[in-house]
Each structure stands twice: as structure tokens, then as C-alpha cells.
Design goal:
6 helices, four-stranded mixed β-sheet, globular, Neutral Protease, domain 2, alpha/beta, single chain
């Protein structure tokens, strides 16, 4: 899979998990392109394209958090990016399948946003980490509301309240 600018996006899994990465593999380039388009339209004077020649996603079986952004490499706990095999194989699980897909969309969008907010533009001091998370969370809500208008906006405000409570 690749973006409109032909930047390859690769999801690395164990061989037996490969098929369960299809949803994330199809969604990731769409969301990556949405980030580049939106940031170019909103901030044309300051717009900086994604500066690397690739972006890799790794589905790790043992990882202490849901996802962690690094330049050109995002590591996910495998249950955060791979579609549950039971849901994938049972078409009658529509509501659960949609919820699982939405959760994957959220974390992929969040970690892609961190390629700009957190990696390219970063905080001055670790006490300002909430800025990185705040911008990434904002863009999750902003980008996903196009596809899920009711879910994205309510979750954004709930997450914002949780971030503020931690301050």
C-alpha cells in the first residue's frame, strides 16, 4: 500500500497474523493522505510534507502501550491494529466488527497525527507532553468526524476532559 505521493506504508506482522492486518492496511494510506491534504490546506504558509520515504507499522505481540510513534515507524500492540480473527470470520457480528474497526481507525489516525505533532513539531519540555497528545487527539476527532460524525465529536470532548484532568 502507498500514499498519493507514493510513500510506502507497510504493516509488519507475524505470518499467521497477516490477513488480520487488511483493514488497517487499507485504511492507513487514506488517513495519511487526509493528514497531508488537511495540513496543506489549513497551514499553506507553514506546511511541511511528511519528510521520510516510508512509514512502517509493526504489530508487536508484547508491547506495554497501544501505540508508540517514532520517525517513520509506529509500533502497536497487535490487538490494537489487527482485526480480531473471530470478528473477521463471523459476518453476523456486525456491531462488534464496526466497533473494532473504529478503534483501529482511531489509533492509526492518532499515531499518524503524531508524525507531525510530536515528531516534526514537538514540545519544549516533557511537562508539555499534553500538547502532543492534545493535537493528535484533536485531529482524530476532526478527521474521523467525516466518516463517523456522532462518535468522533463526543469522544473528542471526553478525551480532552481526561487529558485536562491529568494536568
Amino acid at each position: 500500500m502507498s500514499t498519493d505521493r507514493s510513500i510506502p506504508l507497510t504493516i509488519w506482522t507475524l505470518p499467521e497474523d497477516f490477513l488480520y492486518a487488511r483493514f488497517a492496511a487499507n485504511f492507513s494510506p487514506i488517513m495519511f493522505d487526509r493528514h497531508e491534504e488537511e495540513f496543506g490546506a489549513r497551514f499553506p504558509t507553514y506546511f511541511i510534507e511528511y519528510p521520510f520515504s516510508k512509514l512502517d507499522f509493526v504489530a508487536a505481540r508484547s508491547f506495554p502501550v497501544g501505540g508508540m510513534e517514532n520517525w517513520g515507524l509506529v509500533v502497536f500492540h497487535n490487538n490494537m491494529i489487527l482485526l480480531d480473527s473471530f470478528l473477521e470470520d463471523n459476518a453476523n457480528m456486525t456491531v462488534d466488527l464496526l466497533a473494532e474497526q473504529y478503534a483501529i481507525e482511531k489509533i492509526v489516525t492518532h499515531e499518524i497525527a503524531h508524525q507531525w505533532f510530536g515528531n516534526l513539531v514537538t514540545m519544549n519540555d516533557w511537562s508539555e507532553i499534553w500538547l502532543n497528545e492534545g493535537f493528535a487527539s484533536f485531529y482524530v476527532g476532526d478527521f474521523l468526524k467525516q466518516d463517523h460524525p456522532y462518535l468522533a465529536s463526543s469522544e473528542y470532548y471526553l478525551h480532552l476532559a481526561q487529558l485536562l484532568a491529568k494536568q
